[in-house]
Amino acid sequence: MGSTPKPVVALVVAAVALVAAAALGLMLGASSVSLPELAAWLTGGELSATARNILENVRVPRVLAALLSGAALAVSGALIQASLDNPLASPNIIGVNSGAGLFVLLAASLVPGALWLAPVAAFAGALVAALAIFGLSLGTGASRLTVVLAGIAITTVFGAGMNTILIVDPDAYVGSSTFLVGGLSGVLMRDVGWPAAYIAVGLAAALVGAPKLNILALGDEAAHGLGLNVGALRLVMLAAAAVLAGAAVSFAGLLGFVGLVVPHLVRFFVGHDNRWVVPVSAVAGAAFVAGCDLLARVLFAPYELPVGILMAFIGGPFFIYLILKNKGGGLD
Known about the structure:
Blueprint: H1 6-27, H2 35-43, H3 49-84, H4 96-110, H5 117-139, H6 144-168, H7 176-181, H8 189-216, H9 220-225, H10 230-252, H11 258-270, H12 274-298, H13 307-325
Helix pairs in contact: 1-3, 1-12, 3-8, 3-10, 3-11, 3-12, 4-5, 4-6, 4-10, 5-6, 5-10, 8-10, 8-12, 11-12
């Protein structure tokens, strides 16, 4: 009797972690909800008005936002790394998140109160950044490190734009300080409605394109020889990555390093077959952000740390590790 394939094991483990993180996220916080109360709520049973209010108005929107943003950013990172053949690329490193953030603040300043506009604006900003990086890598034959450095420069410029908007129009975005570092405190169900639809479309596109990304990994010439339109595939996958990252940024803010850390960890366990990397990254990314958000809530209770800060503590050293690991020829 053969053993279970490693990708299947990884997917099951990620799914279990997701369920555990979501359940604990629903129960733990400034006011705790017991497991029997959670079970009663899930099954339509009787529970106190206080517990119901906490679950429905605070915990469920927040946990759902964590799951959606985690899946979106992790898959976005996987698509960007595969499309650009760059292990150091991710939505926050190459400026995709910052582009989305800048356009969200612009929309909030110019058209206040238009909730439906935030994910549209975020996608537009993310796409602008993604196309800029794509043009650089395609038109100049830039090295992997050059692409990353250009992305960091784009991030800096977009960051300056965001700060300018907030100085000129301080009321443009309520909770802007949390938005700039990434956080899920105060997220409501109405905030995740439109973005959830965009994320579903982006995830579907990623799953459909995953087999073709495997062909792209053979090299441009080999992919062309097999009849693959390399340029079109890269554009479509980067557009899907922009949809995913932009939708996540529209309600979660500038969460960093999810798209860098999660795909690398997933590839360590499942290999480089994108037919597995994409779905496992989605599940693992959702579990990762939900778990980090839970830790950010309880580690310093009664004080709460924006989850983006905790992720920076994790992602920064990981990024340095990747640079050292890929030094020399790996970045040429």
